[in-house]
Amino acid sequence: VQLQASGGGLVQAGGSLRLSCAASGRTFSNYHMGWFRQAPGKEREFAAAISRSGGVTYYGDSMKGRFTISRDNAKNTVYLQMNSLKAEDTAVYYCAAGTQVVSSIRSPFSYAFWGQGTQVTVSS
C-alpha cells in the first residue's frame, strides 16, 4: 500500500491542524493505521493509531485529549486532528499502515508501510 500524508504547516501555539493520509494500492480496511512523529535529534514517537474498522483508537500520553485519529474506509484516508498545539508538537509526522501487531500497536514494528512525512511547525 502507498501512503501520502498531507496537511502539515505552520501554526501558532494553541491552534489546530488536520493531517490526512491517503492510501492506495490495497484494501485499506485490511490495515490498522498509525501516526508517528519525529522531531530533530529525537527518536520517532508514537502519536496515535486506529483499528481496521475505526472502532478502537490509541494515543500517546502527551496527545491524549488534544489529538483525534479517525478514518474513512470509503475514502481510503486516515486523519489526525490536532488541537491545542504546543511548540513541542513540532515534528515531521508520518502515517503508517500495518496488518500485524508486533508487541504493541504503538510500536513502529507493527507497521510495514510508511508515508513520506509532513512537517508540522508550531510557533510559540
Average pLDDT: 97
Cα end-to-end separation:
37 Å
The beta-strand count equals: 11
What structural category arises from helix and sheet content?
mainly beta
What pattern of helices and strands is seen along the backbone?
A: EEEEEEEEEEE
Report the radius of gyration as a whole number of Å.
13 Å
The amount of beta strand, in percent, is over 45%
User: What would you call the quaternary organization?
Assistant: single chain
| Helical proportion, percent range | under 10%
Summed up, the helix count is: 0
Low-confidence stretches: none
The main sheet comes to: 7 strands, mixed
Overall shape: globular
Task: Produce the secondary structure layout.
Layout: E1 2-6, E2 9-12, E3 17-24, E4 32-38, E5 45-50, E6 57-59, E7 67-72, E8 77-82, E9 91-98, E10 113-114, E11 118-123
Parallel strand pairs: 2-11
Antiparallel strand pairs: 1-3, 3-8, 4-5, 4-9, 5-6, 7-8, 9-10, 9-11
